[in-house]
Amino acid sequence: MTASALDEVEQYFPYLDRRSPDVSGWCVREQLHHALLSANGIARAVVESSPGTRRPSLSPIKWIVLTTGKIPRGRAQAPKRVRPDASVSQEQLEQLLVQARGALASAAAADPAAWYDHFVFGVMGRNAAIRLIHVHTRHHLAIVKDILALSEPRP
Q1: Which of 20, 97, 101, 124 supports an S-S bond with 128, CB 3.0-4.6 Å?
Q2: Beta bridge partners of 116
Q3: How far is CA 45 from the centre of its chain?
Q4: Is residue 155 part of a domain?
Q5: Cβ distance 118 to 124 under 8 Å?
Q6: Is residue 46 part of a domain?
Q7: What is the DSSP string of 72-131?
């Protein structure tokens, strides 16, 4: 499921510099960079966690987001470690995509008691963290689609 979201990222590489301020302050490049940084960070945290040392926390917001698959736009600011760089190259994005695929596979193979501590949702188990990668990536792909629908192609 999540692999398909990562596969879709690649199809937007030809449009990296497109932007639409009416949709987002970030251009396509920044949306994809952030999504890939986040996917890698979450998956890596799951793999590096000490299984069973933390229990998933209860969060109504987490439950709503993971159940509906929707993240409200413009509600949270990205932590510094996953803020995009407008100067990231396509080659760097391609490398991050390869890393994300590998990290996701590693996270899926991790101990079921592995966990990730999200800055808003709290502690999430392995499966919830993998679901978050999917929902978060789809969220940014939807923003990219809206940017492309409202932006002018550059000559």
Answers
A1: 124
A2: 124
A3: 13
A4: no
A5: yes
A6: yes
A7: -TTS-PPPGGG---TT--HHHHHHHHHHHHHHHHHHHHS-TT-EEEETTTEEEEHHHHHH
Map tokens 């949702």 to a residue. Answer: 121
Give the pLDDT of the chain (155 residues) as one tens digit per residue: 467 888 899 999 999 999 999 999 999 999 999 999 999 999 999 999 999 899 999 999 999 999 999 999 987 788 889 999 999 999 999 999 999 999 999 999 999 999 999 999 999 999 999 999 999 999 999 999 999 998 766 54
Q: Which residue has the tokens 């949709």?
A: 23
Which residue has tokens 């991790």? 110
Considering Cα of 76, then 82, then 87, then 93, what sign does the dihedral take? negative
CATH code assigned at 84 = 1.20.120
Cα–Cα distance measured from residue 28 to residue 72, given in angstroms and rounded to the nearest whole number = 18
Structure tokens at 6: 């990562």
Q: Is the dihedral of CA 55, 132, 43, 143 positive or negative?
A: negative
Query: Taking the alpha carbons of 18, 153, 14, 103 in that order, is the dihedral positive or negative?
Result: positive
Domain total in the chain: 1
